[in-house]
Design goal:
Layout: H1 6-32, H2 49-70, H3 86-106, H4 112-129, H5 138-163
Helix pairs in contact: 1-2, 3-4, 4-5
Amino acid sequence: MNTAPKTIRTIDALAGVFTVSLGAAALTEAIRMPRFAERGVDPYTTPGVTPGMIAIALIIFGFLLTIRALRGGSTGAGVTIHVWTRDAVLRIGLTLTIALTYGGFLFGNVPFIPATIAFVFAFTMALELVNADRKVSVPVLLGGAVLLALAAGFGIDFIFREVFLVRLPG
């Protein structure tokens, strides 16, 4: 087993404890959500089911991260988070800009499907175009980004409408 530096293990342990705490708080609130049993609602469609499942996942992964950190473990991937190359800063800047544009301006103001298609397309194209290790040509990237964006926009809308019974904006 690789041994991570002490500072990385400490950060992982703290992040794990934080994630478990966040998951526990979210699970508590999910359990407190109304169940609408008096209306005869299917228990799998009550409002707290999805947040509860996400909270349980947070608890499990936070616990695993904490245990790994306490045991001195590492992914062995060579931690480079402390190295801020120009490419890393560019990717972070693009990610934040595109995500904040989607969440802050498009979502809720533009119908969900077109907003999500635009987000996935812009995110895919921007981050792949600045990727120095990209192996595909721009036309292939463009076609793949269009297909991915269409599948994501319509697929996410379908899953939320039909599986989670949640209507998305627009």
